[in-house]
Amino acid sequence: MLTVYSEKHKLRDAKTEIFGGELVAPFECPRRAEVILDRITATGLGEVTAPRDYGLDPVLAVHDAGYVGFLESCYADWVADGHKGEAIAMCWPTRSMNSPYIPNNIEGKLGYYALAAETTISDGTWEAALASKDVALTATDHVLAGNPAAFGLCRPPGHHAAADQFGGYCFLNNAAIAAQHALDKGARRVAVLDVDFHHGNGTQSIFYERDDVFFLSIHGDPMEAFPHFLGHADETGKGRGAGYTANYPLPPLADYARWKAALLDAIGKIQAYTPDLLVVSLGVDTFENDPISFFKLAQDDFADCGRCIGAMTIPTVYVMEGGYAIEDIGIVTVNMLSAHDA
Ligand code: SP5
Ligand code: ZN
């Protein structure tokens, strides 16, 4: 399987994350992509190629223009305002002070465009996010050109990013941008299967009222896990999109038997939908040693999952999302991808 990879991911190298009330070194760090790339090379998964530059059009097909402008200048605006640390949201238009106004002040803008506080915007974040969507788009075009599968080694990840919000380590929704791009290039229907431990709230919200993208997600129950407010089983789409969202929230300590039952149900729905393209939001934070998650998948389980997805024989683009057990992230990711091809 072809891997698309850009060195520019290294430009996303934040120094701070709020975790458990402390400022810590971010879990979503450059070494993650390096370890995966090393494993791809060591196992001979296939060729590794650089992305091409698609510009902003495919981004604006999914994201709000004001949000994109905010991301582009956020860090410079933050520094110009006299701040010394990384840009971070601290005050939100929550239920009791919802408002149609977008503040002029950068602290206000951060609250408007953020959905979580753990994720800072650091110098280079925007450039890395742009390269990450180019990775997803290049992988998608490789599959649209007739190849059975490709892997976009995206970093930063994307599935928490909504049309006009960042958070959960995500800025641009790479999977959504890829799905929309495929539709714009002639695909009739796209399925997005999100296997990251966390619910793909951004992707769900972008396509919630549409029937041309079927979003399915297996994740830690939002009653117990981030992103806390989306991903319940009764969220199944709205309007034209009714029936084209499927959520499989699973409880703490869920093992592969439990997880696979959800996967097989999701696979049945995907096959009935007969999509022209499958986008897999490939988070591997379902792994038993993941430091911020609570599922219990073992290394070999990822290979079984890749086999099940590959057996659908739908043209498939894998887009990297989360996974923070750095020592094993290469093994579990490549276990999944190599089993798809087998
Ligand atoms: C792409 C992705 O995987 N993003 C995940 C973002 C998670 N951010 C918030 C994590 C809060 C974790 N709290 C964990 C408590 C562990 N006991
Ligand atoms: Zn995750």
Based on the model shown, name its key terms.
single chain; Arginase, Chain A; eight-stranded parallel β-sheet; two-stranded antiparallel sheet; 10 strands; 13% strand; binds N-[3-({4-[(3-aminopropyl)amino]butyl}amino)propyl]acetamide; binds zinc ion
Description:
The strands form two sheets. Strands 4-1-5-10-9-6-7-8 form an eight-stranded parallel beta sheet, with helices on both faces. It has a two-stranded antiparallel sheet with strand order 2-3. The chain is globular, with a radius of gyration of 18 Å. The protein is of the alpha/beta class and 342 residues long. α5 (125-144) crosses α6. The chain has a single domain (2-15, 27-58, 123-341), classed as 3-Layer(aba) Sandwich (Arginase, Chain A), CATH 3.40.800.20. Helix content is 37%, strand content 13%. The protein binds N-[3-({4-[(3-aminopropyl)amino]butyl}amino)propyl]acetamide (SP5) and zinc ion. Zinc ion binds next to loops.
- For the record, give the distance between the C-alpha atoms at the N and C termini, rounded to a whole number: 10 Å
CATH-assigned homologous superfamily: Histone deacetylase domain
CATH class: Alpha Beta
Question: How many strands, what sense, and barrel or not for the largest sheet?
Answer: 8 strands, parallel
